[in-house]
Specification:
5 helices, globular, 9 strands, alpha+beta, single chain, 8-stranded antiparallel β-barrel
Length: 236
């Protein structure tokens, strides 16, 4: 661990312990989900999760980046866990952003939970850089402006988000969808600990100093909440 990573992890641990909650995205709702991958159109990416058809049960968390009042602009978060038993789970974490190439690596505050979410940081697949995203499905019920409205949308119907992949400057290519189908309780929300570095999809990797600092921040947040933190074998 680098000195900078160590500082970030200690600071994240202290702040999470002080607030008795996640360091980032403390307010959220957790839902059961179905994740369907129909494969990437066009040239394959070389990443099995994106290129090969499959279906898995999932867990989805919608969240606000900071505890702003309901309906105020905020950097919104979407975390998706694919339960791939007996294989390890895959965690995809995306934040409200823009769809255009110049905006897809910038977190953007937004009022509504329906919209574009991107990985912000790019992944490496061999020598290529790829971004992942969850995009609004125009035929899906709107998720609303607040977590309470998102609850009601899921209870009334099964809202959907479309999964997509793109290069740094290329168009989005849809490869699957996530369908929300049931609310989970607050106890499960408190126990969830997503790991966007250790549970990255096989064939992808997050590299560089920002990835290490992000990993340190998540580790510190989990430690500050009393979650077990152990070394993870990184997959590339």
């Amino acid at each position: 661990m680098t000195p900078a990573s160590s500082v970030v992890e200690r600071a994240a641990t202290a702040l999470a312990r002080l607030r008795h909650a996640r360091l980032l995205h403390p307010a959220g709702r957790v839902f059961a989900a179905d994740v369907l991958v129909w494969c990437t159109p066009g040239p394959p990416t070389g990443v099995p999760l994106l290129d090969d058809p499959g279906r898995w049960p999932g867990t989805v968390r919608l969240s606000k980046g900071t505890p702003t009042p309901a309906g105020w602009p905020d950097v919104l978060g979407l975390a998706i866990r694919l339960h791939r038993d007996p294989e390890p789970p895959v965690d995809l974490l995306v934040s409200s952003s823009g769809a255009a190439p110049v905006l897809r690596n910038l977190p953007l505050p937004r009022r509504r939970f329906t919209g574009t979410y991107t990985s912000i940081m790019s992944f490496r697949a061999g020598t290529r850089r790829l971004f992942l995203a969850a995009l609004a499905d125009p035929d899906s019920p709107d998720l609303g402006r607040t977590l309470t409205e998102a609850d009601a949308a899921v209870a009334g119907d099964a809202p959907r988000l479309v999964l997509a992949v793109a290069s740094a400057a290329g168009p989005w290519r849809t490869f699957g969808e996530v369908r929300l189908n049931g609310r989970r309780g607050a106890r499960e929300d408190a126990a969830l600990a997503f790991d966007p570095i250790g549970n990255v999809p096989p064939g992808l990797r997050l590299a560089g100093p920002l990835a290490r600092l992000r990993d340190a921040g998540y580790r510190g947040s989990r430690r500050g909440r009393g979650e077990a933190v152990s070394p993870v074998a990184r997959r590339g």
